[in-house]
Amino acid sequence: MPTLTIHPTGEVIYLETGETVLSGLYKAGYSYTVGCKRGGCGICKVDCHGGTFSYERPIASTVISDEERVDGTCLSCRAVPDTDITIELRGDNVRLVNPFLRQINEKARLRAEAAIATHTCRQGPPSAGTSEE
Amino acid sequence: MGVMRMGYAHVRVTDLTEAKNHYASTMGLYETHTDVSPDGARRVFYKGWDEWDHHSVVLEEGGVGVVKYGWKVEKSEDIDIIEKKAAGFGVTVERMSKGENPEIGDGIRFMTPSEHVFEVYHEATAIGTEVGTHNPEAFPRHLVGVGAPALDHSLVTAEDVQGMEDFLREVFDFYPTEKAMTSLDDDGECVGTWMTSNNQIHQFAVIGGPQGKLHHFAFRLGDWHEVGRAADLMTMDDVPIDVGPTRHGITRGQTVYFFDPSGNRNEVFSGGYLAFPDRPVNIWTVDQLGKGIFYHARELNERFTTVLT
């Protein structure tokens, strides 16, 4: 359950496992300039400042250079985060176009964080966990 | 009469399996051939149900964008005439032999001033429409998905739109049916041109932009209802719709713009009025271009001029 942080506004968006950066942003009510949504046009590039991501579906080699493969360029329609990641949009900043969806995403993120906290708490330190049993 | 129609659009796709699913299952084209190109790329050939020649769409695995367009001429002499005119325009023309493209005859190949590869040919293996010619039914009973009957036209970008219009007029005997101009004054610059050789409202269109790029290639449909139904099917198959269903002010055609699984823009197009060489050319000024392209929204979306493959 990676989170996506948008630099510099600091918005934190909750993604489902396997969800692309673009899909996560849209589902949370945000919009920015995108094109074909199929890895062919390169319009939806963002910069990844922290964390890692993978492309699980094909992208056109013509829209991502070898240099861009390693410099943090992230084709957001195809990029699936492996870890929590921080991105910065190019040109226009991300626009909140649907506050309702943002609210739903925020609640999902808080629930996920609470679930992790409870899980960690219940397990506790390894020794404490075994002594209860 | 020279060029009769755009015979084939040959495009690149990043993943052939996904592309085949789109062009066969969603668009409903008929697969007629598969092979591996001399360069080692896998290819698939398709035709629409109402087309009689061997193929109208070729998919080649690896990358995106257009490889080339094929143009079918009425008479074999037309190839020689076009070869001379293209050479006269200063373009280097090479001969292509029968079989260089599967099931396509001898012809010529050249790079246009817009840096798109054109092939001109007269012979293609005829395999017939899906309804035949003897007391034919109105359409095949078991069409798949959209069931596109035929390839229709394409829009590309070029740095010098007027130059490309001059080229198509000179070499192909095309004439413009509609144009987009920066102003109605004499010094207005042409930023878009929609051209044809016959009554079809446009066969090839050019707008300002980078050299050698594909904006879209389009499939023909019958009417508004079929365009709407195609859009429904795109939603069912999770095809990203760019715009539509809507109408173009330019050509008056009804349309959906959408993307194939590699990001190449496709269109389904119906209607459009009959073109005649003596009909006065419609002119769109850039301030009204939004209405010209998308007649209802009346503004260009941010993808129209930026998303190219």
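qc> The beta strands of chain A are 3-7, 11-14, 30-31, 45-50, 53-55, 73-75, 79-81, 85-89, 95-96.
qc> done
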